[in-house]
Amino acid sequence: LRIGELSRRVGVSPELLRAWETRYGLVHPERSPGGLRLYSEQDERRVREMRDQLEAGHSAAEAARLALRAPVRQVSAETLRGDLDDALAALDEPAAQTALDQTFEWLDLETALAQVILPFLHDLGERWAAKERSVGQEHFASNVIEGRLRVLARGWGDGDGPRTLLACPPGEQHELGLLCFGLLLRARGWRVAYFGAETPPSDLAAAVAELSPQLVVLGAMAPQRFLDAADDIRELSARSRLAIGGAGASADLA
Hints:
- It is built from 12 helices and 6 strands.
- It is α/β, with parallel strands linked by helices and about 250 residues long.
C-alpha cells in the first residue's frame, strides 16, 4: 500500500504515520524505484494495534511497544465467511458488523471481497433458491453487506486517475458485484462514478458526455438484461470504451 491508501484504511494521517515510523519504528515500508513508501499488511496491522492501544488510554510510547509485541492474528477466510453467515442467518446485525469488521481488518481488500463477500453472496443466492434461506434473510443480509460496501466506497470519485462509470441496465436491481468491482478499481487508482441499479440509458449517455470516462461498465445477473438494452449499449459503445460484467455477461454476448 502507498501511504495515502494506508492512511485511508486505518484513519491515521500520513504525517502521523511517518512520525510513528521515525520515533518508534512501528512500520517498515519498502521503497519504490521512485522513492515512495510502500507498506505491507503487517505494517497495517501494527498501525491498527497502535491506534487501538491509544484509544485504550496508553501513552504513544507504550502503545507502540505493545503494538510491536502484539502477535499477528491469523484467521482463515473460511472462518470469517462462516461467522458472517451465522450472524446474518440469525438476523443479528451487530454480530454481522463485527464479522465484517474482522474481515476487512484481517484481510486485504481483494482477498476479503474474493474469498469472503462474493462467495457468501453466491452461497446465499443458492440457499435462497433451494429454500434454505427466506426472502427476509436474503434481503437482510444483502442490505447489511451493501451498507458496508457503500461506506468503503466513500470518496472513490476523488483523485486524478482514470475515470470509470459503473451502472446496471434497466430492470437490473442486483448491484453488489458491481460495487465490489468498483472498490477494486478504486484500489488500483481509478476514480469511480457510480450510478447503480436500473439506470436509464439516456442518463448514461448524458453522463458519458459530461464526464468523458475512460471506461463504462454495465453489470447484470441475467443475459436478457443486456439483450433488452442492446441498441442502447451499442450506441454507448460508440461513445466510450464499454464492458459488460456479472453473471449475465459472456464473451460471446459482448
